[in-house]
Amino acid sequence: MGHTLFGHAPEVGEKAPLWSAESNNGAVEIADYLGQGAVLLLFYPADWSEVCREELPLLEELVTLAGKVKLKTFGISHDGLNSHKAFAREIGLRLISLVSDPYREISRAYGVSEANDTTCKRAAFLIDTEGVVRWTRLAVDVSEPYSIQEIEKALEMVREWDGLSNNLENWKRERQQAVQLPRVAPLAPPTHLQLSFWGTRGSIPVSGLNYNRYGGNTSCVSLTSDSGHLFIFDCGSGARELGNFLMSSQWSPPTNAEPATKKVEGYIFLSHTHWDHIQGFPFFSPVFRSPNRFNIIGWSNCSQTLGSILAGQMEYNYFPVSMNDLPSKLSFYSIQHGEVYLDGARVVGRLLKHPTPSTAYRLELAGRTLVYATDHEPHLPPPLITNTLLGDDVINAHLVEMASGADLLIHDAQYSGIELAEKVGWGHSSVEVAVDTAIRAGVKRLVLYHHDPSHNDDDIDALLATALHRASVLKNDTLQILAAYDGLKLEL
C-alpha cells in the first residue's frame, strides 16, 4: 500500500494524498479515479455506530439525487474488510464504497487520525479531476453527523464542473421531480376521490367472532381517483386485500388503454417501519408484475435504509421471494426538503412523537384535503376529566396546524384516556386527544384509527361513543366522527 503522507489535513488548493487499499467492492487505487471525475472522501469513526448507520445511506441518497455527475464516493474508516462488507449490506449501500484502513495509513495521510487512535475523525474532502482538494470539512465532534447543507455545497460544485445547474433551489426542484412517477401525459384533474380502509388495527392482526364488524388487518389506507391517482398509506396486512383489488377488474384506471395491458402505478407513503405498517408488503400482489411501478416514500427514513428494511423481511429465512427478485419497478425516496407535488397532489409531512418516530402526511388534491396521522402520542397524558379543549401542553400544536381545515383527519385513537395513562411511552393516542385535535384544527370529519388488538367490536363501539360524547361536552356539533373498519369506503 503506497501513500503520499502529509501528516496534516490537506487544505483547499493542495494536492490530495494518493493511496491504494481494499474496499467492500474490491481493490481501490485512488489515482485510477482522478482524471475521470471528482472524488469525495468521507472519513467516519466506525461501522455499526448509530450515527454512521443512519448517516451513510442519507449521504448516498444526496449523491444519487445530485444527478448524473462524474463522482466517485468513498467512505473510509479503520474497520476491517469483512465488517465493511456486512455493514454495507446491512444499510443498503450501493454507490459508496467502504475502504478499509486498519493501519491508519490513509487517515493519517489526511490528518484525521493519530497513530494510536482507535477511530478516525469525521472529515470530508472533495478532490477535482486534477487531484487537487477543492473543499474540506473537519468535524469538531465525531458524534455529530455531517451537515446535509455542507455536503450539498460540495455536490453543487461537482454539478457545476459537469455543466449542470449549481443553483440549490433548482436542484431541490429536480429532486422533487424525481419523486414524480414518469408518465406519458399528466393525470387529468379528478372529479371523484375515494378513500378505502383495508387495515385499521395496530400492533398485530387479529381474527375471530369478536372482530367481525371492525376487522383485524393492520394499517393500510388507499386514496384513488376517477382519473387514475393511487396513493397508499402504510402497508400492513391490509395491503394484501388492496393488492387483490388493484389487480382485479374492479380497478380500471383510465390511464390504461386495454385491460390486458393494465399497469398499476402509485405512491406508497410509510408512516414508519414498525412491522404492523410494513408486514403486508411481501403479499402486495402488484409488486409481482413487471409493468407495475411504485415510488415508496418515507419522511423519517433515509431511502436506502427504507429499502433495506423492507428487503429485510423478505430475506430467505423469512420469505421465499427476495425484493431483488420482484419484477416490478420500485424506487425509494426520503423526502426531507419540504413539500412535493405528485400527480398534481401537494404532499407535506411532519414527524410525530413515536419510538421510531412516525410521520403524518397531509395530501391536497382537487380541492380536498386528507391528513393521515397514526402512531403518535401526546406530549403529556390528558387529564381524565376536563370540560375544556386540551392545550399545547398535551396536544401537538404542529399537527393541529398541519390538519387545519382538512376535509378528513385519520387520527390514532388506540386507547381510552384511562388506558393512555397506563401506556405512556408506547407511542399512541386516545379518543379524547383525537377529538380535541380535530376540533382545534377545524376539520370536517374525524376517523378513529389504529385500533388496539385487545379491543373487540364492543370495545371500539364504546370508544366511538366516548368520542361523540367528548364532542358534545365541548359543544361541537359540526365535527363528524366515525371509527374506521376494514372495508370502509368514504368519498373525500
Describe the secondary structure blueprint for this structure.
Blueprint: E1 20-23, E2 26-29, H1 30-33, E3 38-43, H2 50-65, E4 71-77, H3 81-91, E5 97-100, H4 105-109, E6 123-127, E7 133-138, H5 148-161, H6 168-179, E8 193-199, E9 220-225, E10 230-233, H7 239-247, E11 265-269, E12 293-298, H8 303-312, E13 329-334, E14 340-342, E15 345-352, E16 358-365, E17 368-373, H9 397-402, E18 408-412, H10 417-422, H11 431-441, E19 445-449, H12 457-473, E20 480-483, E21 489-491
Q: Could you explain how this protein is built, in words?
A:
The longest helix has 17 residues, at about 455-475. The strands form four sheets. This protein has a seven-stranded mixed beta sheet with strand order 13-12-11-10-9-8-21. With about 500 residues, it is α/β, with parallel strands linked by helices. Helix 11 packs across helix 12. Helices cover about 25% and strands about 25% of the residues. It starts with 19 loop residues before the first strand and ends with a strand. The chain has twelve helices and 21 strands. The protein has two domains: about 20-180, Glutaredoxin (3-Layer(aba) Sandwich), CATH 3.40.30; about 195-490, 4-Layer Sandwich (Metallo-beta-lactamase, Chain A). The model is unreliable at about 1-5 (pLDDT under 50). The chain has helices spanning about 30-35, 50-65, 80-90, 105-110, 150-160, 170-180, 240-245, 305-310, 395-400, 415-420, 430-440, 455-475; strands at about 20-25, 25-30, 40-45, 70-75, 95-100, 125, 135-140, 195-200, 220-225, 230-235, 265-270, 295-300, 330-335, 340, 345-350, 360-365, 370-375, 410, 445-450, 480-485, 490.
